[in-house]
Amino acid sequence: MSEPRPKSFYALATFFALFLIFLYGPTITIAILSFQGPGGGLTFPMRGVSLHWFRDLFQEQAVGDIWGSFSRSFTLGLMVMVTTVVVSVMGGLAFRKRFKGSGILFYLIITSLVIPSILVSLGVGLIWSQSGLNVHWSTSGFGAQLTWTLPFGLLIMFAVFNRFDQSYEEAARDLGASPWQTIRHVVLPIIAPSLIGVALFGFTLSYDEFARTLLTSGSRNTLPLEIFGMTTNVTTPVIFALGTLTTVFSFLVIGLFLLVVWWMDRRRKAQGSDAGQGLV
User: Fold this and answer.
1) Which pLDDT score is estimated for 193?
2) Is the pLDDT of residue 260 over 90?
């Protein structure tokens, strides 16, 4: 016979349930309202159930450039993701050994996380405009977003390399591997799951970034800026349909990265099994 659960268990369970409601309640509400009928509005009660606003979303809109802004956010997210991964790995490798000024450089990197995002956006925009450069989402916007994603990527790589067993590299060098071969065939495969995590961080943080892109995107909006602009002009549930689709897209991106991690783990186990059978 199982022992009765303490009262604290039910209190914690209730608190966790309320937390989940607070966390996902707004998203669920938007998803429900996006299925309003053709005569539906932005609030409850719902007036019918249909896919009308999803169909309307794929038609030409009187206000905004939804799909153009989505393509810009997607492209910018890929640019930020690749740059974050590459620079984070290089920075992680560089910080494995202490060098002159490494402490100051580390704190300078972390400082960008605590500076208000709107100030970063304002500063980057001013630098670009005062330098005579074109303020554009792919240049100044790209640079502003890197001040947000790179610190996260570097912190992850610092933690990864602090736990990294350097005996693997020593064994590779003893077998005649060059420094590049050691990194390519030993270090990168071992830290690959962490690289996937850094890539996911880089893409998602860029994809939904608003404040650091506000004054650095120029005349072409990214998706978060476009949605913000639509909130002052669009008075139909089409904006809820857009929110639902972007949420689904975000989950698909996360699922894709998790699938890649699962595939890599399965491949590694299969290779280990084949190597063991070869030894037998």
Assistant:
1) 87
2) no
What does the alpha-carbon distance between residue 84 and residue 90 come to, in Å, rounded to a whole number?
10
pLDDT digit string, tens, across residues 3-28: 677 777 888 889 999 999 998 899 99
* N residues, the chain: 280
Q: What is the DSSP string of 42-84?
A: SSSSP--B-SHHHHHHTSPPSS--HHHHHHHHHHHHHHHHHHH
Q: Which residues contact 52 (CB under 8 A, 6 or more apart)?
A: 36, 37, 38
User: Of 97, 22, 66, 46, nearest to 230 (Cα)?
Assistant: 66
pTM: 0.86
φ, ψ dihedrals at 36, nearest 5°: -60, 155
CA angle 242, 248, 249 (to 5 degrees): 90
**What's the pLDDT tens digit per position in 213-244?**
999 998 889 999 998 888 888 778 888 998 89
pLDDT band, residue 274 (cuts 50/70/90): low
Q: Sort 166 into a burial class: Cβ within 10 Å, 0-12 / 13-18 / 19+.
A: exposed
CA angle (81 as vertex; 163, 130 as ends), nearest 5? 120
Domains of the chain: 66-233 (1.10.3720.10)
Q: Are 213 and 145 in contact (CB under 8 A)?
A: yes
Cβ distance 125 to 140 under 8 Å? yes
